[in-house]
Amino acid sequence: MMETEKKNIHIAVVVSTLTEEYQSNILDGIRQYAFANHITLEHFVAFGNIGGDIRHDTGEYNIFSLANFSRFDGVILVINTIQFADCMESVLTRVREAGIPAVCIDKDVPDLYSICIDNESPMRHMVEHFIEHHGFTRINYVSGPADNIDSVQRLKAYRSALESHGIPVEEERIYHGNFVSKDGTDAIRTFLRSSLEFPQAIVCANDNMAIAAMNALTANGVRVPEDVAVSGFDYIYNARNYAPSLTSVQRPLERAGQLACQKILNHIRGREQERFTLLETRCCFSQSCGCSETPVMDTDEFKKRNFNVLESFSTDVSLLSRMSSALAECDNLEEYSLNLRRFIPEIEAKEFYICLCDDWKQGIMADETEENYLIHILSPNNYIVTGYSETMLVPLAYKNGEFVEMGPFPSEEMLPGLFDEDNHPGNYYFIPLHFRERCMGYCVIKDCNFPISSRLFHAWIMNITNSLESVRKIICLDRVTRKLNKLYTVDTLSDINNRNGFRISTQQLYSYCINTKKPVMLMFLDMDGLKKINDTYGHKGGDKAISTMASVIGKACSDGEICCRFGGDEFIIFAADYSEDRAAELAERIEAGLEKVNKTMGLPYRLETSLGYHITVPERGVDLFQLVSIADNIMYAAKKKKKTSRYLKQMSPEEVEKLLDEENKKN
After folding, report:
1. Sequential DSSP letters for 468-497
2. What are 90-129's pLDDT values in tens digits?
3. Cα(649)–Cα(641) distance, rounded to whole angstroms?
4. Mean pLDDT for the stretch of residues 532-552
């Protein structure tokens, strides 16, 4: 592609845990080159391998599936930061399918551009320094993960250096960790318990483990470097400014980032270049091994930097605490979005979006009549784990200093307007929103230092996610409660009150009539001929008759009356402050409704009812259902005057079955 063919260039960056110094330095280099060349970067950021929880990691790494690589001009893969091999292979496959130039940093992938930083030579040099310069022969080693290429190469160099100097490699002197600080502490505990003679030097595969190891040694009364020398790898800020300053290996991380971005641009412009680049490193021998070749930071500069770090940390803690408190109060998405709005301006981003899967509340069903509703909502098993819903919702959108409305959009777009030619170049960060492996959506931040400068950024994002999950659960529990209440108070066949619902619905009105001496009306209805309908057309036909009767009664109760299915084919109606005239009108409405049904629905039987009502001013101590019994007796007297045999039409069983199926489909 020629440079003149495209105004804006977009490069995707795939990285995990961007706040670590290794990732941060690489990204600094990428951003520097991108800014100078007016390139937009879209960072897809996971925070994997934080606590060893595979369900959490699954939710984090899912953000990489969002990247629609076919829309980008290139991709930079900070490949060693991603601990899921299957996830990384999936990303590589999709990148190849997109046919765009890709650069892998710190791992040589044969068919892609690769920028690697020499691991073996400097580690070998480090071990040889302890052997040749200090005369050590007992050298222990703290390694990284067995499936990490950097870790593998550094451990190989350690073994090779010992063997080339005739020093046997004792496996008990090697501790296998995961590149995290805790491994340095655990390694020292292991070495102190070992039956082998205590080492003269401890070589660590990265600085974080080395610093933790020095802390553990000091806590156990072992001096560095007087009793044991220690070295690390990466030459991070804390290593340079620790006491004693740490002997380490300086890696050209910013340069690697710059070259990665440059390779993408060279490819776009058709310039020839090497597929593979290997960057050299250098050992920096310092106080932790008894050497002082490297300069220590100026004291005033150190104080200023530490003050700024502490001040920034204090500000971030305040933001996190206040936001946590505000979001904990939310019971629904609207309230959640309003409360979150209060804190977005504080991170000073040009743009901020919350993008949710359209089924982020999965487990909350629209069809409350489904028989397995409660089982489904309490044990949902069909939420999204891999990928995102086809349509994304945007409950919160912030752009250029104000909150704006944004409608749903296809997830393949990632963000509406992202690739518009009038969209100014900048840095976007796509961060996953999930609870364990359950995908809920993602947030997008543009041109903001907060994601890369704050050690609390991931905690901030996790608070947004966990609060959203709390809202989801509150909504689920509310729906469950309402469903249980309905099951307790509503007759499932007729969809009107059952006895419990009738008692609850009438209790306050009945007490009011007792206190104010207002009359109440109790009407008792009994469906005519239900047994004959059941005997002739089965219980399916009988159920249809009951539900139709209930519908007619419910529609007739349009003036404050309360109805219920009392049981079987019996119904009751209650009304407060009622007169004889109104009761007669209610009976007429019911009869008219039944007649309409008999004429229009084409049922194989007639629907009719016998009814009786009783109106009285209730006295204190008289239970409502005592009045129901009186109305029942009045109804029974009326019913004895009827015969039920005339209510059935002559239809074949097949015709009845077909008719009932058609009616069920209509309803």
Report:
1. HHHHHHHHHHHHHHHHHHHHHHB-TTTSSB
2. 999 999 999 999 999 988 998 999 999 999 999 999 999 9
3. 21
4. 91
Residue type, 488: Y
Contacts of 490 (CB under 8 A, 6+ apart): 496, 497, 498, 501
Yes or no: say if 16 and 48 are a contact pair by the CB < 8 Å rule: yes
* Contact status, residue 647 vs residue 528, Cβ threshold 8 Å: yes
3-state secondary structure of 613: strand
- Give Rg (Cα) of the chain: 37
Q: Are strands 201-204 and 102-105 parallel, antiparallel or unpaired?
A: unpaired
pLDDT tens for 127-177 read 999 999 999 999 999 999 888 888 999 999 999 999 999 999 999 999 999
Per-residue b/e over 125-137, b at no fewer than 16 CB within 10 Å? Answer: bbbbbbbeebebe
pLDDT at 366 over 60: no
d(CA 225, CA 200): 9
Would you tell me how many other CB atoms lie within 10 Å of the CB of residue 663? 15
CA distance 87 to 83: 8
In the DSSP assignment, the letter for residue 291 is -
Condensed to tens digits (0 to 9), the pLDDT of residues 194-236 reads: 999 999 999 999 999 999 999 999 999 999 999 999 999 999 8
Concatenating the DSSP letter of every residue in 165-212 gives TT----GGGEEE--SSHHHHHHHHHHHHH-SSPPPSEEEESSHHHHHH
Residue pointed to by tokens 């040889």: 128
Q: Within 13 A of 113's CA, how many CA atoms are on the CB side?
A: 24
Rounded CA separation 210/143 (Å) = 11
Q: State which amino acid sits at residue 381.
A: N
Query: Which class for 517: exposed (0-12), middle (13-18), buried (19 or more C-beta within 10 A)?
Result: exposed
